[in-house]
Amino acid sequence: MKKITIFLVLSIFLLLNVFSFSAVRIKDISDFRGARDNQLFGIGLVTGLDGTGDSGEVPSEMLNNMLVNFNINLTSFVETENTALVMVFADIPPFYKEGMRLDVTVAAIGDSDSLENGVLIQTPLYGADNKVYAVAQGPVLTGGTNTRSSSSLQDRYKAVGTIPGGAIIEREIPARIVNENTVTINLKQPDITTSARVANAINSSFSLKIAKAQDPSSVRIEIPEYFQDDVISFLALVEEVEVTPDAKAKIVINERTGTIVLGGNVEIADFTVSYGNFSVSVEKGKISGKPATVANLITALKAAGATPQDIIAIIQSAQPYLYAELVVM
């Protein structure tokens, strides 16, 4: 009886503290443990370049050793400036099968000026276990033509390119998400409150106490007996359960661009600060008659003619009085 009472009290507490955020699907804030991407890489050649390839020298002893490990001998190929030695990268998502395609990123290793209009020669892509999981080949894209019509646009960096769908999977990477009739959800943003809310939402949705928060990042779920022969349907129902995630109040400041991003309604303690021609006072939880929040502080400062740099300086000075984490970029 005591355990049931504690569970009900926790449920009520969690429901009473979700008023300030919108509900989202569990699918959008978490992944199932065991369902993860894997990184692939390889070394290959891009050919068909218009004199923008390598000068013909392997750049380091380390690279030479890598080539030996991959059983690649490029002595006779890198002497032409129409060819470039490249690293090839791809991520293989969970549950991808043989024959499915992956996007590929290609980056010059040597002193090639540009991979534009080049074609990657068939290149095996290896996993961390040194096994081949995919093979990449195809024309390298480096983006559109350079544009000078706006000073805000930057020149393209042509030593890196992409091949959309350029790799074909040759070997599947097994993904095991069920362990002893249980699955575990990993939150993308670990948080104690969110973890507890997820477990509570799942239990409420199925009217069973099958979920338990293990720690701030994971929730363990027992698969009900009537779903043990149809786990995918059960996981689909779990993904659609809605929950209201929690997060620490946070202020992110980008000093280079003068941008301030607020997470939630960040409150401020009483304080007074003098900065240049500005004097700011927060008294009894109010700023000019409004609730003492960072959003209202910024509004008041802008109305008084403060520049983004002024506002950033004042917020940084008031950091000890902010009920939030301040991140400066």
Task: Provide a short characterization of the protein structure.
The chain is α+β, with helices and mostly antiparallel strands and 329 residues long.
Explain what the structure shows.
- With 329 residues, this protein is an alpha+beta fold.
- It folds into 3 domains: 2-34 and 176-243, Alpha-Beta Complex (Aspartate Aminotransferase, domain 1), CATH 3.90.1150; 38-169, no CATH class; 250-328, no CATH class.
- The protein is built from 7 helices and 19 strands.
- The protein has a 6-stranded antiparallel β-barrel.
- A hairpin with a 5-residue loop joins strand 6 and strand 7.
List keywords for this structure.
alpha+beta, 329 residues, 4-stranded antiparallel β-sheet, 32% strand, flat, Aspartate Aminotransferase, domain 1
**What gyration radius follows from the Cα positions, in whole Å?**
28 Å
The mean pLDDT is: 81
Widest β-sheet, arrangement of strands: 3-4-5-8-7-6
Order of helices and strands: HEHEEHEEEEEEHEEHEEEEEEEHHE
Number of strands: 19
Count the DSSP helices. Answer: 7
Q: How many angstroms separate the termini? A: 51 Å
Q: How much helical structure, as a percent, in the residues?
A: 10-25%
Shape: flat
Major sheet details: 6 strands, antiparallel, barrel
Q: Structural class, judged by helices and strands?
A: alpha+beta
Low-confidence stretches: 1-20
User: How many domains comprise the coordinates?
Assistant: 3
- The proportion of strand residues reads 25-35%
